[in-house]
Amino acid sequence: MPDLEDLSSVNGADLTEAQIKGILAQIDLDITNLLRDGKLAALKYSLPGDAGRAGDRAANLHALLDARRYYSELLKQQPAIHAATANFED
């Protein structure tokens, strides 16, 4: 798929509450695995990257925590709907 030059051709619906909660759960799992140094850790060691850049565990944890804060705020912005029903008999 070619790179996009702008976002004019991109569309989609807002994330649902369930989708945001799923993203948060995945981030929490990634954080837990990273901290436990598990085999599913998102990044175990420093890895060289393009132009001499490197990713490390601390940087990855920082990025995961930033993402978690973002999605937590997004979840707080979801509209709250409270429905109440009443059963009135004559």
TrEMBL record:
Protein name: Uncharacterized protein
